[in-house]
Each structure stands twice: as C-alpha cells, then as structure tokens.
Amino acid sequence: MPAPLRIAVLASGRGSNFAALLAARERSELPVEFVLVASDKADAPVLQFAQSAGVPTTVLDPRGYSDRRAYDVALFDRIGASKPDLLVLAGFMRIIDGEALKPWTGRMINIHPSLLPKYRGLHTHRRALKAGDLEHGASVHYVTAELDGGPVIAQTILPIEAGDNENTLAARLLPLEHQLLPAVVALLAAGRLALSEEGITFDNQPLRKPLRWKDGELVR
Q1: Residue 200 lies inside a defined structural domain of this protein
Q2: Is 68 annotated as belonging to a binding site?
Q3: Across residues 45-57, what is the average pLDDT?
Q4: Do the domain assignments include residue 216?
Q5: Which parts of the sequence bind N(1)-(5-phospho-beta-D-ribosyl)glycinamide (predicted)?
Q6: What is the Rg, in whole angstroms, of the alpha carbon atoms belonging to the chain?
Q7: 157 among the known binding-site residues?
Q8: Which of the residues 46, 70, 121, 207 could staple to 200 if both were Cys, CB 3.0 to 4.6 A apart?
Q9: Is residue 25 marked as binding?
C-alpha cells in the first residue's frame, strides 16, 4: 500500500479549509498525513486548531526580514524540513515571491474564492456582486508566480441570489469550498493529477478545462 501523501498547509487565519481537509481524513476519504501547518501570524486560530489535532506548527513573522524574497526563502526552508509532498495554501494572505516558489512548482495548490480567471486577489465576493454576475464560485489552482494565475484544476459554482450581499455570498460559498478542496487533494493523493509545461493532466489525459464539483464529485 502506498505511503500517505505528506501535506503542509499554509494559512493566515481561522483555517476552516484546513479543518475540512482534516475532517475528510478522519472520514477515511483522504490518505494523507499532515506534517506541518505554517503561518505568518502568531495569533492565527489555525495554529491552535492544528495543535489540538496533533499537527506540528511553525510561525514566521515577516517583520523580521528585509524583503519578501528573504522571508519566503526562510519560510520554505522551514516547510521543506518537514518533507511534504504537497503544499496547500488555505487562506494564506501573502503574495509569494516567484523565485522562492519555483522549487515547489507542481507541488503547491491554492483555493481562491472566485471563478478564476475572474477576480484575482482580494474582495472577490464584493467584485462579483458589483459586476452584476449571475454566478460565483471557488477555484483550486496550482500556484505560480502570477497572483492567482496558475492553471486551474477544479471549480465549484454557486448561483448568486437576489438580495445576496458580500457576507451572505461568502457564507453560502464556504461550505462548497470545504467540499472542493478535499476532493482535489484526494485526486492528488491518488496520483491522478499532474502539472507539466504543457499543462494539467488528469488520469494521464490533458485537462482542457477545470473539473467541476457536481452532485458530490468532480467531473470533467
């Protein structure tokens, strides 16, 4: 039987997506081992949650470094020491230096609350509403030097309802994020996804458009 996929998680806040991953593992849906939760904020609730679950944690304060690259190199050195197979950004609220992340290309994913390539960056719910969009969603993508611009693996779509505001839209989307991210990680743990210079492959076939979360599973 293959060894569990070793995962390090980077988060800056409460860590609800990490909690979703942990819950999926406890339900025996994810053959993974969480080797580290890292954060840039010492008071991030995700750290206490990880510690209570027996997952090692580390904190590195950006204020102790001269620039972004120096910080990111130091952070990834710490992460690398835990020997993860996959890095999952789950609410990590920093832009990562392109040179620092190069060694992790194809081994780092992020979940972002929009239907990429729409609304990279912050305030995605507000921007979708302001644009008059009829639907919103979340995307899991490989991380590259381009902010929220890496190849998109999978998406979940949510209709925008009359009367939605920024808070209600975010609240309705979050449970879908908690389903999407573990489903993608399960595919990675099974070796069904890969990234090359030509793009993403799924079951050894080119993935021409993102997988979609539908009726409890990811489909082409």
Answers
A1: no
A2: yes
A3: 97
A4: no
A5: 15-17
A6: 17
A7: no
A8: 207
A9: no
Residue 39's pLDDT band (boundaries 50, 70, 90)? Answer: very high
- Residue 167 inside a domain? The answer is yes
Cα 35 to Cα 80: distance, rounded to the nearest angstrom: 10
| 96 marked among binding-site residues | yes
Torsion sign across C-alpha atoms 147, 15, 4, 74: positive
What DSSP state is assigned to residue 90? S
pLDDT 10s digits, 179-200: 999 999 999 999 999 999 899 9
List beta partners, residue 33: 6
Active site residues: 112
160 assigned to a ligand binding site? no
pLDDT digits (tens, 9 = 90+) for 120-154: 999 999 999 999 999 999 999 999 999 999 999 99
How many domains is the chain partitioned into structurally?
Answer: 1
**Domain of residue 99, residue span:** 5-191
Q: Round to whole Å and give the CA distance between 203 and 3.
A: 20
What does the DSSP 8-state code read for residue 147? Answer: T
With a pLDDT cut of 90, the percent of the chain lying above it is 98
Q: How many CB atoms lie within 10 A of CB 143?
A: 24
Q: Is residue 196 part of a domain?
A: no
CATH number at residue 68: 3.40.50.170
